[in-house]
Amino acid sequence: MSKDGWLVFDDFKHRAFNNNRDFRWSRKLASLMSALHNNLKYAVADVDFCRTEAREEAKIALCSEIPDLKVRWLFFANDRPVCEANVRERNSDSLRRELSLIADYSPLYDIPQGAVVLPIWRSENWQRATGN
């Protein structure tokens, strides 16, 4: 749990049962459903939510448990060059995988109407290099 009382389910579908990317196959689903039923504050994140179908599937699964659930989508702005620069600057062990995911999901990146769109963090190096 984060310091402000939110449960964060990051990479929700990562290492899902049978490597199935369907929402209901997540190893984190039981914990999420518990949070839902206990009226806890939570956030669910997964790169696959770039796809409209993945978001719809998640919403259906959640609303089948809590029919009047209000789903709120928050997205980062669609800015592939800045995302790639941030990943490269971080230079983590998963660099290749993360760059591959950006390449795979960029064409599918569909921000739903009514979503809150957040700016992407830009490092000082990015700002100096581009003047932005």
Write structural notes for this entry:
By secondary structure, the chain is of the alpha/beta class. It contains five helices and four strands; from the N terminus they run E-H-E-H-E-H-H-E-H. The chain has helices at residues 29-37, 52-65, 80-90, 95-105, 124-130, and strands spanning 6-9, 41-44, 74-76, 116-118. The strands form two sheets. The chain has a two-stranded parallel sheet with strand order 1-2. A two-stranded parallel sheet has the order 3-4. Helix 3 (80-90) runs antiparallel to helix 4 (95-105). It is globular, with a radius of gyration of 16 Å. The mean pLDDT is 90.
Largest sheet: 2 strands, parallel
* Helix percentage: 25-40%
Radius of gyration from CA coordinates? 16 Å
Return the string of H and E elements. EHEHEHHEH
Number of helices: 5
Strand order, largest beta sheet? 1-2
Helix-strand category: alpha/beta
Strand content: 5-15%
What's the average pLDDT? 90
Separation, N- and C-terminal Cα atoms: 34 Å
Low-confidence stretches: none
* DSSP strand count: 4
Overall, the morphology is globular
Write the topology of this structure.
Elements: E1 6-9, H1 29-37, E2 41-44, H2 52-65, E3 74-76, H3 80-90, H4 95-105, E4 116-118, H5 124-130
Parallel strand pairs: 1-2, 3-4
Helix pairs in contact: 3-4
